[in-house]
Amino acid sequence: GAGVSQSPRYKVAKRGQDVALRCDPISGHVSLFWYQQALGQGPEFLTYFQNEAQLDKSGLPSDRFFAERPEGSVSTLKIQRTQQEDSAVYLCASSPPREPRLGYFGPGTRLLVL
Amino acid sequence: QKEVEQNSGPLSVPEGAIASLNCTYSDRGSQSFFWYRQYSGKSPELIMFIYSNGDKEDGRFTAQLNKASQYVSLLIRDSQPSDSATYLCAGQDSNYQLIWGAGTKLIIKP
Questions:
Q1: What is the pLDDT of residues A3-46, one digit of tens each?
Q2: Chain B closest CA to A42's CA: distance in Å?
């Protein structure tokens, strides 16, 4: 079946520009995670949804970062007034209902802020 | 501060030999551990997960967990050039949040 998809795959933004990154999880997956991965580093947790509820947003680095999942399926990560340090790969992962531990990752969105 | 530590490598192993990847963690509350493989420019792919002390085998892969020593390892038998990748270790806390290591780069030399 179809896996997790993310769009756009690549995004170049000018500093100060707002960006929106989309994640389409695997159908039926209740849990959805966003991660930020800098070059040469492991992923860093940003936020976690269970259905439409955002249960943990402790990893969001600043109030410029906002995530939503209004209908419990597609999720959007929005970054306002982008800064150069926001340049990274943004990974989305979803998990099936009975195995919330098992994250299936999307291909990621590579964001470059100039 | 919850941490997962891995040697960044690169770890170079001849084809056909056993590759041994290691990981230590600081959070005694972590119960589940995961090994992901990540090819350059690609997203992480789940290889194995382990919840209980001891060994868990799946094909050429064996995960080992020692909760007393807070140590997780991944063994890859009969290493193939296609196993060359970065291997990420992650521990999961009670809130289902994954704490990731920075990864070990593995190179299998033909």
A1: 999 999 999 999 999 999 999 999 989 999 999 999 888 899 89
A2: 4
